[in-house]
Design brief:
Elements (H helix, E strand, L loop, with lengths): L2 H27 L6 H23 L5 H23 L1 H5 L22 H26 L1
Helix pairs in contact: 1-2, 1-5, 2-3, 3-5
């Protein structure tokens, strides 16, 4: 395996692990109860940790397409969730989101960094790296 493929897997694993640990920190340590959309984002982030960890151990970068698909779906949910938090016209028509409102903002660093924004950042980084892995695999064949 080329070093850049391995580095890409390390980056995907590290990014998804930090995002997963961050979400667990916010819910278990800080006591922030996740809303429904937060759960959906977790559903797409947590498996990336497992997939990329196994792929790294096996030195197999073929998970790039799967990681990209998970990132696109999870990132799309993050964009919608962030829009619900920040765009008034979406807030006014926001669907009921369970016990916790999806428009609520537990954190709002620098006036724009919320939990869905952090998740979106991780999904975008994973997607970009996955696309590079796909390109590099094609070049090495």
């Amino acid at each position: 395996m080329h070093k850049r493929l391995e580095n890409g897997l390390v980056f995907i694993f590290t990014t998804s692990l930090i995002a997963t640990l961050g979400s667990l920190y916010f819910s278990t340590v800080r006591g922030f109860e996740p809303c429904t959309l937060c759960w959906y984002q977790r559903i797409f982030m947590y498996p990336i940790v497992l997939m990329s960890g196994v792929a790294l151990f096996q030195k197999n970068a073929k998970i790039a397409l799967t990681a990209a698909v998970f990132s696109i779906v999870g990132g799309s949910i993050s964009i919608y969730h962030y829009g619900l938090q920040k765009l008034r016209f979406l807030q006014d028509s926001a669907p009921a989101c369970g016990d916790v409102s999806c428009t609520g903002q537990y954190v709002n660093y620098l006036g724009f960094i919320t939990i869905p924004f952090m998740a979106l950042t991780a999904f975008v980084l994973i997607l970009i790296t996955s696309l590079f892995l796909l390109k590099w695999q094609k070049e090495s064949n």
